[in-house]
Amino acid sequence: MYHNNLNITLPEDPDTVVWKYLDLSKFLDLLLSKKLFMSRSDKFEDQYEGTFSEPTYEEIKKLAIDNPGFINNYKIHREKVAISSWHINEYESFAMWQIFTQNSEGLAIQSTIGRLQKALNPENNFKQYIGEVKYIDYKKEYIPFDDFFFPFLFKRKSFQYEREVRIISDVTDSKITLNDGLKINVDISQLIEKIYIHPKSENWYKNLVIQLVKELGFDFKIEKSDLESDILI
Predict the structure, then answer these.
(1) For residues 129 and 166, what is the distance between their CA atoms, to the nearest angstrom?
(2) Can you list the residues of the chain whose pLDDT is less than 70?
(3) What is the pTM of this model?
(4) What is the DSSP string of the chain?
(5) What is the pLDDT of residues 204-232, one digit of tens each?
C-alpha cells in the first residue's frame, strides 16, 4: 500500500492524467505477470539520479566528518529503492514517443494519479510511495535531506519536460535483494485506463495489440495515437 509522507507531494486532483511509454515486450510482461516492473534507482541512465545537489553535498560532507558512514548509507540505500516513472500530461507527447519507444512500435498507457493509487496492492514487506519529482538547479539549490526519499524526488532542471511522477518502493526493511529491479502487484484494470499505439505504427501492429489484449482477457480501450505524423506545409 502506498504511504503518505509529509515531504512527498502529488498533484491534488486525482484525475490528473499520467502516461507511461513502453515497448510491446514490457507491456506484455505487465499483462501476463499482472506485475509492474520497477527499476533499481541506481540503474537509471541519468548519472545524477539519486544524488545530491552541490550545496546539499557540502553540508553532508561536514556532517560526515564525525560520521564517516553517513554518505555510504545513502549509496547503499540507492540499491534498496526501485522506481516506476510516469509522465504528467493532459495529452500524449510527441517527444515522449521519440524518447521512450524504438522505431514505430510502442505503446503508451494512459492512467490518472487516482488510478495509480488504487492500482497498488498493499505490500506487507516494504514501503511504497507515489511522489512528484521537483526540478532544481543542482549547482545552486539545496535539497533537504531529513528524509531518505529526498534524493529520489529531485532532478535537474533540464529534465523538466518529463514532468515525472514516481512510484517508489523501498525494500530497506525487508530481505529482498534488488538486482535490476522489483516487480510489484498491481490491479491492471485500475492501472490502465486506455492504451495508445505508436503514431507511426502499421495497421497489423495495432491489430496485433488488440488481439493480444483481448486474448489475455482485458477490455480497456485501445486507440491509435492521434498525433499526425505527416508534415503539413
Answers:
(1) 8
(2) 1-7, 44-53, 59-60, 63, 144-148, 228-233
(3) 0.84
(4) -BPP-TT----S-TT-EEEEEE-HHHHHHHHHH-EEEEEEGGGSS-TTTT---HHHHHHHHHHHHH-THHHHHHHHHHTTEEEEEEEE-SS--HHHHHHH-BTTB-EEEEEEHHHHHHHBPP-SSSEEEEEE-EEE-TTT-----SSTTGGGSEEEGGGGGG-EEEEEEE-TTSS---SSEEEEEB-HHHH-SEEEE-TT--HHHHHHHHHHHHHTT---EEEE-----SPP-
(5) 999 999 999 999 999 999 998 877 555 55
